[in-house]
Amino acid sequence: MNIYPKRWQALGYLTAGAFLSPLDYFIVNMALPSIKKAFNASDHQLQMVVAIYGLTYAALVVCGGRLGDLYGRKKIFILGLYIFLFSSLACAFSPDITFLIIARLFQGVGASFLAPQVLASIRVLFNSNEQPKAVSIFSSVFGLASVAGQLLGGFLLNLHWTVFSWEMVFLVNVPVTLLCMIGIHFTMDNNREERRQNIDFTGAFLLILSLLMIICPIIFGRKYDWAWWIFAILLSGIFVLVMFYKYEVKSLREAKPVLIDPTLLGHRPFVLCLLIIFFYNFTSGLFICYPYYLQQFLHQNPIETGLAIIPYGIAFFLGPLLVARIKLSSHTLIYAGLGLLIVGFTLTSLFIAFYEKPSPIMDISLFLAGLGHGIIMPVMMRKTIALVSKEKAGQASGLISISIQIGSVIGGTLIGTVFFSAIEYVGFPKAFALAVLLIAVVQTVGIFINRKLLKYREN
């Protein structure tokens, strides 16, 4: 008998809270034109509204996971909800664009405390037979968020019975956070490491600094025409990341507190899994290029744009639920997920190149890609988290979240750069087709990595 009788109810509230993190990425993109009009904001300021959230989230997510290990996942999850609640209110009632950017920074802090607690709690609350179903339920919210973010954003921005406009994309967070706070309080224990340790502040500083120095140049490189100092900062960030790793190795050897146990990064199967997660999140490029293509080239409104992504989002939502019922090895499912991503994006690229406009046939190709995404995500999360002990679940969850976020940021930036740069040379349709094809090509890297994973025992 499981010692956590309310674990499934707790998972519902954990998942609902974690749902806010990806939702706020997708939904805010839909509100940017209204925010620009309200504050007379520049394109650079609008970019900061989006980037500062993902940047803070990616930089702090490992710290969020570690805090959950040390002080209890329930406490840190609720703290994240409080930060997310008040920062969402601050966003909605921002007096100017600078205030909004700062409030978005704190939203990213709150988000970084939420997602790691879910995967770590699944590792602790559920036995090995229940974990695949639990991870599949959690993974499905990302597919739901991709649909809900664009559809809900389009719907809220077209409401006329309220005095609010773009503010609604932030106010919608309020009831969800309040519900989760109450639900978690009554359904979840404050599980944490048995042996309390101090926080590795030096390690945290080095990791956050290195991630900022790596991610910022990638986000803003195109704005500054990829000047030499952009690459200098990027290389310096990699150097600081190496310093962080060496510092953690030294701290572990001297029995000092560590932020990330370096033995995790020395565990080859675990690292290979992180790499697959990193590359399949290049799919974020679709959500940058497709809405822009639909609105700027085909002149569709926000609701029409949101509806266009539904085939991908529905399949993304169904994929994890399907995985929970399929009795195949994880390696086979990884091949299946990556294969569907490659086929789906390749066909989408061909349809756009020849026909330019979305069609029912292209909806099918997007559905295949979304299904591939939905299949591989829970498999990789489950496989990766199963490779570590329960005591290191928070650290592992943080590293998984970092792989997701950095993959999304780097993938979105590279795919977006190819798309926007190619428009002036080959036009909108072929530029979009090229960007989508590039997403498919990147997934082949995961195929080769999975072949290396086959050398290790099936988990």
Automatic annotation (TrEMBL):
GO MF entry, a single one: transmembrane transporter activity
PROSITE patterns tied to this protein: MFS
Protein name: MFS transporter
Keyword check for Nucleotide-binding: no
Residue ranges constituting the Major facilitator superfamily (MFS) profile domain according to the UniProt record: 10-458
Topology versus the membrane: Multi-pass membrane protein
GO cellular component term of the entry, any: membrane
Compartment(s) of residence: Membrane
Annotated transmembrane regions: 12-32, 44-64, 76-95, 101-122, 134-157, 163-187, 199-220, 226-249, 270-293, 305-326, 333-355, 361-381, 402-425, 431-449
Keyword terms, alphabetized: Membrane, Transmembrane, Transmembrane helix
Keyword ATP-binding on entry: no
The organism of origin for this protein: Chryseobacterium antibioticum
